Amino acid sequence: MSAVANTNVVRLVMLGPPGAGKGTQAEKFARSRGVPRISTGDILREAVHAGTEMGRAAREVMDAGRLVGDDIMIGIVRERLSRPDTRAGFVLEGFPRTVAQARALDTLIDEVAPLVVVDIEVPEEVLVRRLQIRRICSTCGWTAPPGTTVCAKCGGSLVQRTDDNEAVVRERLAVYLRSTQPIVDFYQSRNTFRSVDGDQTEESVAADLSAAVASVVGGFR
Prior knowledge:
8 helices
């Protein structure tokens, strides 16, 4: 490892199936460490809205009804990670989604700090129950915790996603497992990979996540 390791810098990749709570945990962890939470959905929309070169390319692909490919997503993430606010670290959510993206991410960062990868694991039946009661903001897309009646971010009304019925949920989980297992396999042999039990209270998951990251960063030299 690099002789100039900086254990104050935290670079975290969050993995986990739909309904695992990775978005909530990513936001909470990023806020606690004072680093940006980088959601690929958010930065993709931002790039499209801003009309950047990659954003224009992404819009063409999406307008044609196709999925945005590795080259475009890697380019958008590269631009985001080059901004000054990532010097103290970042939390990546939704990237990488392919092994090609994972390999590219390795080339986008230096060895000043480790890339910590945490996989939030939740049993399928628990995920199905969570997703069926999940509500999102109809205005900004924020995912609301159970029991919430209005969006805490913009005050918008909460609705159920059209793809949060049981049959679609189970198919989405199957697709996630098929597409994500190669990424887990890619990272699992590294000593910077950790798994966290997501079938706990939000506070317990957050504590385990922090402990998992500390166990990597604290031992990095």
